[in-house]
């Protein structure tokens, strides 16, 4: 039972501040994903937890044990690197067993543990090979085996699937999730791939520019984005973010009033967010719909993306069934689903709860 | 490849091989000839009467009793010189490689002032011909009272081999991903364990390439041995065999037999290490 608690954690490289007074709690036995664009500090945070970097300020605790002063080897963690970082001169068995070897585990016990892990990962037949004789997927498994064999308190994974091809990546997502459910080890997983974050995590931590933007379940970060950054980052195609005004208490987009009650005290300039799936294309002139002209139509398989221009430089994407036909320059109207509208304060970027 | 292109290629390669190998073959041939045959005209390419007399004299002492008062024949020192050469080349190589490996590792892994410029200064130093160093170094040895000692030669060879070894190891370590060391740290290894068990095995081809370079340079050196040393019993092989020349005659059989024996250790070493050598220099070439 090990939760990871970070308090006031900061990290700077010279004048470049990568993490800014970060507070975060990773609950025990959970699969927590650090998600964000490159340079957001997620990998730095992971390396701080691992002990490969020293924090500029703040502290890290595993349970009630303070660890930020300990070297990596004393934290009882295991890490899977993006490049796998297998030891090139050692065979697979020694790669997996190296952590036990340096801890002077008796030989018989070591062999048994390595064998057990190799069996679970289905790499028993590879134990005598060197890393360069393995395929990408096999290396990935060896790296996982090396992490699993020591029964660590915490798994740290730094984009472990990013070097695999798309098909293998999809398969490994499911496997990693299964391993986590079987082992129940607290896991911190770094990725920039929102699909990985959404499919595997108990909790998603969305980060940007060294600051945590939102912590929540995949449903939360997708369904209730806390701010403009999360709204724009999560979801493919991204959420439509449309400037809107509050006129006499009525929300107005491109001159059309929308029947959304806005809580008192909201600023008069707002941003309305609506996912493409929640935008319907209706006939021009329909009551309560915002008129516009079809800008571009893209077929993406079972769906069709229709981009509608409401005003110059103001376009909204609607995701509709592929059977819905539309031609460029058709005069249409869009109707956002009022139940799935998000409203943000453009000054602070924060969501306004409706 | 077209047949005529292949023919030209093989002709050129054959000519180069002949030019490179002929002196060696001639040395072997001469070393096996009796004295009368060496100067015969026209020369024989291969001795008519093969004799191992020169080798016997070098390895097991002179068969001809030296004339009273003539002192010890130079050939009696052959094994001593051979030993000296082994001591100085192995000694200087061990020192060079140890320093180069540790220095190159820290240059690629730790941050400190001068980290970027040291390898370039080193390679620049290597480009200065050693003739320029030899006299200042000799004067230094005199003031340290180290002349005519094997240690002075070891120091001299370290000075000329270290820069290139450092450069080679530096290029090599730059190609070793730091993640594998971090993985070992997370696995619980100490810094020293990481260096010994993870880094050194990976760096082995580089270490072998640098060692061979250093061994060849110090084994083949003539200049430093000539300048630093003067007692017969302290000479390295390269300088020692020059005593087979004297004012009145040149003992070509001894000379050539010595040359052949001198080539042997390096040739054997090459045979065993060739594979690593290519890997090591290859890594240096790409990453440097």
From TrEMBL, chain A:
Residue ranges constituting the ABC transporter domain according to the UniProt record: 4-234
Q: Looking at the record's lineage, which domain of life comes first?
A: Bacteria
Q: Which Gene3D superfamilies match?
A: 2.40.50.100, Nucleic acid-binding proteins, P-loop containing nucleotide triphosphate hydrolases
Alphabetical list of InterPro entries matching this protein: AAA+_ATPase, ABC_transporter-like_ATP-bd, ABC_transporter-like_CS, ABC_transpr_MalK-like, ABC_transpr_MalK/UgpC-like, Mo/tungstate-bd_C_term_dom, NA-bd_OB-fold, P-loop_NTPase
One biological process term in Gene Ontology: carbohydrate transport
Q: Does the keyword ATP-binding apply?
A: yes
Q: From the UniProt record, which GO molecular function terms apply?
A: ABC-type transporter activity; ATP binding; ATP hydrolysis activity
Q: Which UniProt keywords apply?
A: ATP-binding, Cell membrane, Membrane, Nucleotide-binding, Translocase, Transport
Any Pfam family from its record, for instance, is TOBE_2
Q: According to its record, what are the GO cellular component terms?
A: ATP-binding cassette (ABC) transporter complex, substrate-binding subunit-containing
Tell me its family. Answer: Belongs to the ABC transporter superfamily.
Name of the featured protein: ABC transporter ATP-binding protein
Origin species, per record, is Neoroseomonas lacus
Automatic annotation (TrEMBL), chain B:
Name the Pfam families for this protein.
BPD_transp_1
Respond yes or no to whether keyword Membrane is given for this record.
Answer: yes
* CDD domains linked to this entry: TM_PBP2
Query: What range(s) does the ABC transmembrane type-1 domain occupy?
Result: 82-273
| Transmembrane portions of the chain | 7-28, 86-108, 120-144, 150-173, 194-219, 252-272
Q: PANTHER family of this UniProt entry?
A: INNER MEMBRANE ABC TRANSPORTER PERMEASE PROTEIN YCJP, MALTOSE TRANSPORT SYSTEM PERMEASE-RELATED
**Under what name is this protein listed?**
Sugar ABC transporter permease
Q: What is the lineage of its organism?
A: Bacteria, Pseudomonadati, Pseudomonadota, Alphaproteobacteria, Acetobacterales
């Amino acid at each position: 039972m090990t939760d990871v608690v970070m308090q006031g954690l900061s990290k700077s490289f010279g004048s470049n501040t990568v993490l800014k007074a970060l507070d975060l709690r990773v609950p025990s036995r959970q699969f927590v994903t650090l998600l964000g664009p490159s340079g957001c500090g997620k990998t730095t945070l992971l390396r701080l937890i691992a002990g490969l970097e020293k924090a500029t300020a703040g502290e890290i605790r595993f349970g009630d044990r303070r660890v930020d002063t300990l070297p990596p080897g004393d934290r009882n963690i295991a890490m899977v690197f993006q490049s796998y970082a297998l030891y090139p001169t050692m065979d697979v068995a020694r790669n997996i067993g190296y952590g036990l070897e340096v801890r002077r585990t008796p030989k018989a016990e070591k062999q048994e543990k390595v064998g057990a892990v190799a069996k679970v990962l289905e790499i028993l037949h590879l134990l005598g090979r060197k890393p360069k004789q393995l395929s990408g997927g096999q290396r990935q498994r060896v790296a996982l085996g090396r992490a699993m064999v020591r029964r660590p308190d915490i798994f740290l994974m730094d984009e472990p699937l990013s070097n695999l091809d798309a098909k293998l990546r999809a398969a490994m997502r499911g496997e990693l999730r299964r391993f986590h459910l079987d082992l129940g080890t607290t896991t911190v997983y770094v990725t920039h791939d929102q699909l990985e974050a959404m499919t595997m995590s108990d909790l998603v931590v969305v980060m940007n520019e060294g600051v945590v933007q939102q912590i929540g379940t995949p449903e939360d970060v997708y369904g209730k984005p806390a701010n403009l950054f999360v709204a724009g980052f999560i979801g493919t195609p991204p959420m439509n973010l449309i400037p809107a005004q509050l006129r006499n208490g009525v929300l107005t987009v491109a001159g059309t009033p929308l029947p959304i009650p806005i809580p008192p005290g909201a600023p008069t300039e707002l941003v309305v967010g609506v996912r493409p799936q929640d935008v319907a294309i209706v006939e021009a002139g329909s009551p309560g719909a915002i008129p516009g002209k079809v800008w571009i139509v893209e077929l993406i398989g079972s769906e069709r993306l229709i981009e509608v221009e409401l005003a110059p430089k103001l376009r909204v994407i609607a995701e509709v069934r592929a059977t819905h036909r539309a031609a460029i320059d058709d005069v249409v109207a869009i109707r956002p689903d009022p139940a799935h509208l998000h409203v943000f304060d453009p000054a602070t970027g924060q969501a306004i709860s409706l | 490849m077209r047949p005529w292109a292949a023919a030209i290629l093989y002709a050129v390669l054959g000519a180069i091989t002949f030019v490179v190998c002929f002196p060696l073959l001639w040395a072997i041939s001469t070393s096996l000839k009796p004295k009368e045959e060496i100067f015969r005209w026209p020369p024989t390419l291969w001795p008519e009467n093969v004799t191992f007399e020169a080798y016997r004299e070098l390895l097991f002492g002179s068969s001809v009793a030296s004339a009273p008062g003539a002192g010890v024949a130079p050939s009696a020192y052959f094994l001593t010189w051979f030993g000296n050469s082994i001591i100085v080349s192995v000694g200087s190589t061990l020192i060079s490689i140890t320093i180069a490996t540790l220095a190159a590792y820290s240059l690629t892994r730790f941050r400190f002032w001068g980290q970027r410029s040291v390898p370039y200064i080193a390679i620049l130093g290597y480009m200065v011909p050693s003739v320029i160093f030899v006299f200042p170094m000799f004067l230094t040895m005199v003031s340290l009272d180290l002349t005519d000692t094997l240690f002075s030669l070891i120091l001299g060879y370290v000075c000329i081999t270290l820069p290139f070894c450092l450069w080679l190891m530096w290029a090599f370590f730059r190609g070793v991903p730091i993640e594998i060391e971090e993985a070992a740290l997370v696995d619980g290894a100490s810094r020293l364990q990481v260096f010994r068990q993870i880094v050194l095995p990976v760096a082995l081809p580089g270490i072998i390439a640098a060692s061979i370079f250093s061994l060849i340079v110090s084994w083949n050196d003539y200049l430093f041995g000539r300048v630093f040393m003067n007692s017969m019993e302290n000479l390295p092989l390269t300088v020692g065999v020059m005593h087979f020349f004297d004012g009145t005659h040149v003992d070509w059989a001894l000379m050539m037999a010595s040359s052949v024996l001198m080539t042997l250790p390096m040739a054997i070493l090459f045979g065993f290490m060739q594979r690593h050598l290519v890997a090591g220099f290859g890594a240096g070439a790409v990453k440097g």
